[in-house]
Amino acid sequence: AQSVTQLDSHVSVSEGTPVLLRCNYSSSYSPSLFWYVQHPNKGLQLLLKYTSAATLVKGINGFEAEFKKSETSFHLTKPSAHMSDAAEYFCVVSARVNNDMRFGAGTRLTVKP
Amino acid sequence: DAGVTQSPTHLIKTRGQQVTLRCSPKSGHDTVSWYQQALGQGPQFIFQYYEEEERQRGNFPDRFSGHQFPNYSSELNVNALLLGDSALYLCASSGPTGNGYTFGSGTRLTVV
Questions:
Q1: B72: left (phi over 0), alpha (psi -120 to 50) or beta
Q2: What is the pLDDT of residues B9-33, one digit of tens each?
Q3: Is A46 within 8 Å of B100 when comparing Cβ atoms?
């Protein structure tokens, strides 16, 4: 079985400051890990994915995440927040064996001007 | 290249009725998964279809059933609707590479 825990339900940053959204995972298999973003009344968009290649993964819009097996973490970061980054972010784990994906509860990112 | 298409986009049903939601996967994808996203929550896995069979199921009652057709499209059926079934229902497709899902925009179901 696999699951993810997003450690913060809400994160608020000022525009131009760094973003850190935290995610810990649990998986019986070597996991694939993903971050998705959901803007209000919109569908889910893939930001980035880890599938056993490089542990530092770069995604769209300047986001990146680092897979740390020893800490079972996959935190999402961005050096400088933009107003358009305000959205709900979901960390997702998948066991490669069956491709079943399980979502975290989400972190709402607010960006203040 | 069309992505995942869901229909209808919005639906209002009365408690006790039945509903069918439809999903066409992305070209080249053969696996379809359904998720329920209640307001303010993360998507919850309902079930996954592959080769016209239900391959995995989440913690949802038997009122939730599905089907996959030979062209890989899928339907989600919900019987005896409850007010608590009101949610955004997301369909996601994936292919043989196992690199994650492509999500549709969802069907917003309101049960009154």
A1: left
A2: 999 999 999 999 999 999 989 999 9
A3: yes
